[in-house]
């Protein structure tokens, strides 16, 4: 593919914790650690600047979640936005779900570009008029005003999760969605906030027997009865809600047999799946564990069809990464619109793309120092030992505090959004 | 924030870990679990993964025969303390009927502390319930400190801790049984208490009833 050339970025006061394009790619939402949501909108391509592709500009900013205090447990609930998911657009307004550890909210984002003027009982500033001074009646009319984008919370889905919510997923029926925490998955109807159905529960009767947690979950893009969830033991379960009310027994179970030559005390930790995503076609799922990205065919449960090494040079450093806790970092992964390329993040602000057809891969860096607007991104390479060539970086020089956990790919074009700590980078394909 | 590069404290060799590396990994893991436990609301996934790692190391050490019950090499601790900690971990008879958060805190604090000394028995505390208010003061480094604190503050403290219990233990048992037997979707807190009521299965416990009575006396202040 062409190397991306355009870069737009914004400074966030806080660390970005989620990035998501809407279904048309016109809007891009980010959530951050401070509970804020910032939505960017793509500029309409103008006839005057034909070579300038639509840039993303801030469209709306609002505070989605506030820090809360759970008085029963004496705990503070973080306002950090864990996930944002858009609903498909059905009218002029946009709807999205945003969630922190405990509460999911449905937000409506709508534009206001007209306002009524000419009230009888109020003057233009809104002050009440003395009825005695009114001699004529007039009909208020709508007059244009400066565009205002307002976000209003339409639903709050609270008090259904004991553990921390890690995923939300909108169903293809557009009437329901699911929220998953470490041990349970709940199904919600958008119209009903005081009730949810528990569809998966892996909490053992005796918590001391707990050895596995749910790490991610997603609905099938077309079959509204099917969903998958991944676990900390590197397994994926596909469930059919038609089979039973409580989907404790999976329809399919995906697990790769362990490679005995690679076995270590860290094998289980690095097999823990941090993200699972259906392909747009719905025929495959992609999983991300600490060192690899795997593509699974839904019809083959015993092993993935493709495995891509993200940063295998870290395999010999697992003990240090365990010590500094980096081994627990949860990286996400994304498909491009045609399911031909997959992307995921790494350390040192690197992110990786894998072309499934050509089997070529590339490492790119999201950093202001190394990129200027409209500059072509240069591929990066990590030197794994021996002589380090110019422009290569050695493993021991990698900055593990600069991690790219969240990325997003436009649904139909080659536009990607990459969150590097508190900066957002948007890269576009080179024009012609 | 994390420094550039990686510390070299760990062995970088991914070959099967020797006993020394294994021990150091075990110590590191247990320290992480203790740290988890100190947090108001630990990351459950992380705790589970670390605990599984500890279990794996302990299993291998047991198979190797290099794991043995703590002997005289743990200098500075009286034998009585070690026995007491074993008892506290394995038999939660006194920890069971304690619905108020504070005594449960104490239970989980006591369960987690002697983890390094007891073979096989895993602290169920870290993710069993949130541990509110743990951050005031320091985390007790040993049972000595815990008991010391209780005793120096006088029996009144213990009474305060258990004051919410009220009534007799029999009443509480009945309440717990009623709740567990009834609606499954009861409040999360009560489910937790029900799971606490079941004593953890400790392996290799050498019961010393005399010591247990002594412990119960101190805590319950009959």
Structure notes:
The complex is a heterodimer of chains A (432) and B (222). Chain A has a domain at 14-108 and 151-156. Chain A has two helices and 32 strands. The longest helix of chain A is centred in the last third of the chain and has 6 residues, at 318-323. Mean pLDDT of chain A is 91; it is low at 1-13. Helix content of chain A is 3%, strand content 42%. Chain A has helices at residues 267-271, 318-323; strands at residues 4-11, 16-21, 27-32, 36-42, 56-63, 68-70, 75-77, 83-86, 94-99, 104-117, 141-157, 167-170, 176-180, 184-189, 197-201, 214-219, 226-231, 236-240, 252-254, 275-278, 284-288, 292-297, 306-309, 333-335, 341-345, 350-355, 361-365, 381-383, 392-394, 406-409, 415-420, 423-429. Chain A has 432 residues and is mainly beta. Chain B has 222 residues and is mostly helical. In chain B, 55% of the residues lie in helices and 0% in strands. Chain B contains ten helices and no strands. Chain B has helices at 19-38, 44-64, 79-90, 101-112, 125-128, 143-152, 155-162, 169-181, 188-197, 209-220. In chain B, helix 1 runs antiparallel to helix 2 (44-64) and helix 8 crosses helix 9 (188-197). Chain B starts with 18 loop residues before the first helix and ends with a helix. The model of chain B is unreliable at 71-208 (pLDDT under 50). Classes of the chains: A mainly beta (432), B mainly alpha (222). Chains A and B meet through helix 2 of A and helix 1, helix 2 and helix 9 of B.
Question: How are the SSEs placed, and which strands pair?
Answer:
The complex is a heterodimer of chains A (432) and B (222).
Chain A: E1 4-11, E2 16-21, E3 27-32, E4 36-42, E5 56-63, E6 68-70, E7 75-77, E8 83-86, E9 94-99, E10 104-117, E11 141-157, E12 167-170, E13 176-180, E14 184-189, E15 197-201, E16 214-219, E17 226-231, E18 236-240, E19 252-254, H1 267-271, E20 275-278, E21 284-288, E22 292-297, E23 306-309, H2 318-323, E24 333-335, E25 341-345, E26 350-355, E27 361-365, E28 381-383, E29 392-394, E30 406-409, E31 415-420, E32 423-429
Parallel strand pairs in A: 28-29
Antiparallel strand pairs in A: 1-32, 2-3, 3-4, 4-5, 6-7, 8-9, 9-10, 10-11, 12-13, 13-14, 14-15, 16-17, 17-18, 18-19, 20-21, 21-22, 22-23, 24-25, 25-26, 26-27, 30-31, 31-32
Chain B: H1 19-38, H2 44-64, H3 79-90, H4 101-112, H5 125-128, H6 143-152, H7 155-162, H8 169-181, H9 188-197, H10 209-220
Helix pairs in contact in B: 1-2, 8-9
